[in-house]
Amino acid sequence: MSFAARRTGLATRLGVLLGLGVFLVWSLAPVVWLVLSSFLTQRALIAQPPDLAPASFTLQNFVAVMQSAASLGHGMLNSFIVASFSTALALALGAPAAYALARLSLPRANVISFMILATQMLPGIAIAIPLFIVITRLGLIDNVWTLGLVYLSFNLPIVIWILRGFFLGIPQGLERAAAVDGAGPVRTFRYIILPISIPPLAAAAVFAFIEAWNEFFFALILTRKSAETVPLVVAQFAGQYQTVFGQMMAAALISVAPVILLAIIFKDQIVRGFADGMMKG
Amino acid sequence: MLHKPTRRGLLQGAAGAGLLAALPDGLIRSAFAEDAALNVFGPQPPDPAPPGAAQFAIDLFDKWKADNKASVEYDLVAWPQLHDRMATAFASGSAPWDVVYMSGWVPEFATSLRPFADKLPASLVDDMPPTSFATTTWDGQVYGAVFTLSLLTLFYNTEHLAEAGLDGPPKTWDDLLRYTKELTRDGRSGWVANYGDPAGIGGTASQWMCFLQQAGGKMYGEDGMPVFDSDAGVDAMQMMVDLMDAGTDPGSISYVGINDATNVLLAGRASMQMNWPFMWTAAQDPEQSQIVGKLGGAILPAGPAGSASIDGTDAWTIPNSSKNPEVAQSLIEFYLDPVVQKQQAIDTGWLPIRLSTLADADVQKALPNAKVVLEQASHPYDSFVTPDYNEVTQALGTEVQKALQKAKTPAEAIADASELVTAIVKRRS
Amino acid sequence: MRAFQTYERRRRSAGAAFVAPALAVLALILAYPILDSIWLALQRVTLKAGQVERTWVGAENFHRLFNDETALRAIFNTAYFSIAEVVLVVGIGLGVALLLNNAMGRSGFFRVVLVIPWAIAPVANAVLWKWILNANYGVLNGVLTSLGLIEHNQVWLGTPTMALNVLLLVDVWKSIPFVALLMLAGLQQVPKVLYRAAYMDGAGSFQTFVHITLPSIKTAIAIAVVLQTIWSLRVFDLIFVLTRGGPADATVLLNFLAYRVTFNFLDLGYGAAIANLVFAATFILAIIYIWLLKPRRRVAAS
User: Fold this and answer.
1) Which tens digit of pLDDT belongs to each residue from C221-265?
2) When you count CB atoms within 10 A of the terminal residue's CB, does the N or C end of chain B come out lower?
3) Equal CATH topology for B36-150+312-376 and B153-310+388-428
4) Which of B81, B155, B260, B284 to probe by mutation at the A interface, max A CB count within 10 Å?
5) To probe the interface with B, which of A48, A132, A240, A248 has the most B CB atoms within 10 Å?
6) CATH code for the domain defined by C69-301
């Protein structure tokens, strides 16, 4: 390797390093403050600059969150059911639909795809009241499964769009080869397409789970006590006359843990594409 | 929430079971039919919540439930989400509640509410400030009962005032401006307010309504049309602008909630604020306040027409859809019982609405501020609530913000606001 | 020939069977609410005697919309906000994806970090930023002052332009993770052989990026642009918690206005009209973007 090339290499490496540093600070600085806040008293938090003396640190926020009438554990369980249910359905229904729209020469596939996306263009605020009326009449209010289904209304279209885009990018040769071997569309999809689509599937799953885990507005309107999800519980720490900021951040910190766990589980799937596998030879 | 079974409860339960076993089928059914299951919709504590939702008068509450053969389930949401949940339910024609908390929304939802307050016992009504029914009355019908006297009053940092050599709280607008100027020093502000959210009770528009009444003005004429485009209206606006220049915390325009501004006072970086009675308890809590023992209270400084405030109007109402309106009313009467009211004041810091409880020595000792609020109540405190209160205060408050930012002169802002509010009122009728 | 026809027919019927359940579910949940919302936009809705009364008014709500100063301001704000957000989020998101696809950024740690800003419950996130940005005791002022970057506390949400841009930045912060994740998945689709070939041909890293990486992830970019457009037109939590549309309506976006009119003013008809305007705007923008970013294979091949 020439000297010049090595120097560019070094510059690139430094650039990447700098970029990663900026990325870390940008992503984490507010989060660091969130974590610190959850261990500080309100008194320390409203000081300017914030009072970071050892005496200001406390576990009281976490104790208060655990003891409060707002049931974080109950909310997390509900959110977990709603998010898992909605994500599983979104992938189970969305992946085949996306594949069909991308590859199975359906008439007007583009129009159908666009109509599916168009369902996302009307703000949730507009459909909230009619939806509430229907669900109340059916007696399905305050029910985790109802909420999981309602969340399909935004998760499914997005999952279909993410996956369709990726399926469009798969070289035609793969399916032709499968067809020559006598595999039908179902087998091709199951044994050829899905295995090489792990990164987009993982991205779609992470998307659907997080969106369902954090959804606030429909949950506010469609649940009461028994199906109450995590964002509603977290919101309870911000009142009219008082917001106990430390407690709210403590609740937020606890509630975000399962999602981080999910990210840790899926982190490798996100980068295990067919770039490494199938296409190598 | 967990309730320990009380001995009385157990005995009653046992007696009830024995009685039921001895009764024929038909009677058992009617015995069950008497049991009322009430659903109460309200805010989460520390916002003003009823017994059982907040930790006070729990024993009395259990006894009330036993005596009335009623069960009470609370449907509580954080205050900022109350109106949304309520609006969805009422707009769908299905409110599943028997008792509903309201804060200035009575006229808005009046057609969905039961005008029960006429039937409250005279002994109770006579013990409440008559003006407290102003915000729960619409078209001559009374739809709700306020359960806590919540008026804006003046709070100030006694230490700051003493340092500046100021003797006692400001009593007039001139005092207020002078104090604010003198207290604005050492990186502190003389005055802090929450001007960020124009709408609603406590929003920018309603704060201006305090000054409006202090200047001798009012919002609406006899015919219901706005009359605030007057000298009083402009003076009130000018006063707020002058107060800004004299030393209002510049962040005030961005504070959307009262708590954003309260924190500044609690941190000791502002000296005076207009706030609700709950402020008193918060300021005495060393976990959140740096001004423990340094808070003073007074009625709002007088304008040309004297002192005046607005009503925070935390009230209980009964929706039309309630299947047990009598029991619901009895529950509201229980919330307003003198003993419950006293415990509400002492245990939660929310003042009672009963005049006799407000005058109670224990209450006054626990909440020295009670006296101030009671005195404030002897001056006007109209919140001018109408069915389109949200829309009116949104339009009006936005114009007030423009004047505070000097994008418009006070006179222009008030004239434009009057035009907007007129259009809103006309659209309603 | 016949075999091919059977093959095509099989594919088509399998395709119909693949799509049908998803469409059925969507129709079940959304058909009535969407149609009702369009219907509502043409009516005046009032609450009378506990009942909801609807009166047909035709295009009156839309007529009112285009004469409403606040709505016009919201249209302008929304246009600015959504264009700026799409550009920033897609640009930065692509940059982050490239970093994380680089040998040095491939550690799983970075991918977990990436997800964090997105995973925090939006309510808590908005309150977190409200406190960070507080003009009096906010930590941002504290940090910038101690670094000597500002002399006095700034009122970050105090002036119209500043408030809108600060909101924009916070929303960009929250939106980057998903787009970066999508791009990262896209980068995995780029066959390694192409890079090897480019390297053999002596292409520089910039040339490789323009000629190999970009074309290969065009679909991912297209999806990101379209979805981000939809979402940036629906921003709500941040405005609700941080500014309530203020000061003086400077940060009112259309979706927030639709919320305010529907839930605060209970003017369901007018609120639906505003929501339908958002729908129409998104619809048109999405068509334009899809057309612009369409992979033009035939052109490239010829």
Assistant:
1) 988 999 999 999 988 889 999 999 989 999 999 999 999 999 999
2) C
3) yes
4) B81
5) A240
6) 1.10.3720.10
In a 10 Å sphere around its CB, with 0-12 CB exposed, 13-18 middle and 19+ buried, how is residue C146 labelled? exposed
Contacts of A165 (CB under 8 A, 6+ apart): A102, A200, C219, C220, C222, C223
Distance from CA of B186 to the nearest CA of A (A): 13
3-class secondary-structure state, position A1? coil
Residue type, A253: L
Residues from chain A that touch C29, judged by Cβ atoms under 8 A, are: 131, 149-150, 152-153
Asked if C117 and A119 come within 8 Å (Cβ–Cβ), the reply is: no
Q: What is the pLDDT of residues A267-276, one digit of tens each?
A: 787 766 544 4
Token pair 């506010």 is found at: A220
Residue B280 or residue B33, greater confidence: B280
Q: How many CA atoms lie within 13 A of B409 on its CB side?
A: 4
Torsion of CA B146, B375, B359, B384, to 10 degrees: -10
Distance from CA of B94 to the nearest CA of A (A): 8
Would you call B63 exposed, middle or buried from its count of C-beta atoms within 10 A (0-12, 13-18, 19+)?
middle
In 3-state terms, what secondary structure has residue A236? coil
Nearest Cα residue to C96 out of C165, C186, C203? C186
Domain boundaries, chain B: 36-150+312-376, 153-310+388-428
List the domain boundaries for chain C.
69-301
Mean pLDDT of successive 10-residue segments in chain C (302 residues)? 73 91 94 92 81 86 93 95 96 94 86 89 90 94 91 92 96 94 85 81 82 85 91 89 91 94 91 94 88 61 34
The CATH number given to A69-271 is 1.10.3720.10
Length of chain A: 281
Task: Tell whether the torsion through CA atoms of C260, C261, C266 and C272 is positive or negative.
Answer: negative
Check CB contact under 8 Å for B85 and A244: no
Nearest-neighbour CA in chain C from B18: distance (Å): 43
Q: List all residues 6 or more positions away from A153 whose beta carbon is below 8 Å from its beta carbon.
A: A119, C26, C29, C30
User: What share of residues in chain C are helix, strand, coil (percent, to 5)?
Assistant: 75, 5, 20
Q: How many CB atoms lie within 10 A of CB A265?
A: 12
Beta strand pairing call for B70-77 and B36-43: parallel
- Kindly report, residue by residue over A3-31, the tens digit of the pLDDT: 445 556 788 889 899 999 999 999 999 99
pLDDT of res. B315: 96
Name every residue whose Cβ is closer than 8 Å to that of residue B204 and which is 6 or more positions away in sequence. Answer: B194, B195, B196, B197, B198, B397, B400, B401, B404
Task: Kindly determine whether residue C263 and residue B112, on different chains, have CB atoms separated by under 8 Å.
Answer: no
Say what the pTM is.
0.90
Rounded to whole angstroms, the Cα distance separating C135 from A227 reads 37
Place of tokens 């639909």: A97
| Residues near C292 by beta carbon (within 8 Å), at least 6 away in sequence | none
- The architecture in CATH of the region B153-310+388-428 reads 3-Layer(aba) Sandwich (3.40)
Top-level class of domain B36-150+312-376? alpha beta
Report the sign of the C-alpha dihedral through residues A72, C256, A209, A35, in that order: negative
Domain ranges for chain A, please list them: 3-62, 69-271
CB-based contact C119 A260, cutoff 8 Å: yes
The neighbouring-strand residues paired with B153 are B275
* Residue C224: both structure tokens together: 């990101």
Cβ B239 vs Cβ B219: under 8 Å:
no
> Which residue, among C133, C160, A171, has the nearest Cα to B405 in the 3D structure?
C160
- In degrees and rounded to multiples of 5, residue A52 shows phi and psi of -100, 20
In our burial notation (b when 16+ CB lie closer than 10 A, e otherwise), range C61-74 reads bbebbeebebbebb
